[in-house]
């Protein structure tokens, strides 16, 4: 599947470039595409430099948590649930605790912590995978839930809006929470259908129903806070949780008589090795994205969508936010740039900017996640992971548009 998608990016880019040259007379399009390839290759290396430090840091702390028994304890707590959702993972396996930590970090918007934890979990799942190149059911479910971008505190979106001068940076908090919940639900259901998981199992419901009730109560509580209080709470919770995890790992490790410094260095070496193996996959995917962007294919698609929406007589304001949605599956940095450009062009509190911010906060860089997570363990055949992840992505985009019309139209 990834082979076809990667080739498809280049084919679509080539067709778009030929149309611009032969029909539009743009002879410089091919130079722009070549420049895009080299620019993305350079960006891949720059991303790797950041990943080296982040992975080395967090896998060092995770090694302490692992030796202190934190990961094993989490695995036991969630064992009954994951036995139903991931029946091929043995009870108490370390992967279960790592998956839990990854979801918690994602929910709090701690991207720098979530990625290395997720890579560690994917490697643990690969140890159980009978195939070295084909994704297992457990790996697919884990990846799709990651790609569905369940975020409770979208701190980075608040930061972007504040930088652009928004009067209320947290205005999109509840829309993002609703939209990202929709994308995660669709992701889980799509995988459940493909893998024939029994979500109505009493044990599964015993975990999911209280979680849904807690989420609803959390939303109700936050809805009653002022904008300034919400922004302060978001910042404090994110940073406190991040540093709190570090201290928790260190203190439990010291209590269990783990040699924390030596253990950190041992885990950090693993992080360096993991990061080193990612570069070929990043170069491949980001260069394909660079060609697609430089060819003008995204602009062609946007004009077509606007024409179709107008033909049906629907409101077209949301179309101006679609560049963020269209590039988000491929590149987080490109989506960030599209979001900021929309804020600057239309106004930070304009309807297109609010939709773009909600989309940015409720969707994930699906193909980047695929390349990094599967690339880290050498998976080449993704099976239904791509389809389910993109379905969750589409649900997040549609929910973001619908919720913003509900809240802001």
Order of helices and strands: HHHHHHHHHHHHHHHHHH
Shape: globular
- How far apart the termini lie comes to 39 Å
Percent strand: under 5%
**Main β-sheet, in a few words?**
none
Residues in helix, %: over 70%
Count of helical stretches: 18
Determine the structural class based on helices, strands and strand pairing: mainly alpha
User: Unreliable runs, pLDDT <50, ≥5 residues?
Assistant: none
Number of structurally distinct domains: 1
Query: Please, what is the average pLDDT?
Result: 80
Q: How many DSSP-defined strands?
A: 0
What is Rg? Answer: 22 Å
What do these coordinates show?
This protein is mainly alpha-helical and 409 residues long. The protein has one domain (2-17, 35-408). The protein is 78% helix and 0% strand. It is built from 18 helices and no strands. It has helices at 2-22, 29-68, 70-77, 79-85, 94-107, 111-126, 137-147, 155-163, 173-195, 202-223, 227-255, 260-294, 297-311, 322-327, 332-346, 351-362, 366-375, 385-408. It starts with a helix and ends with a helix.
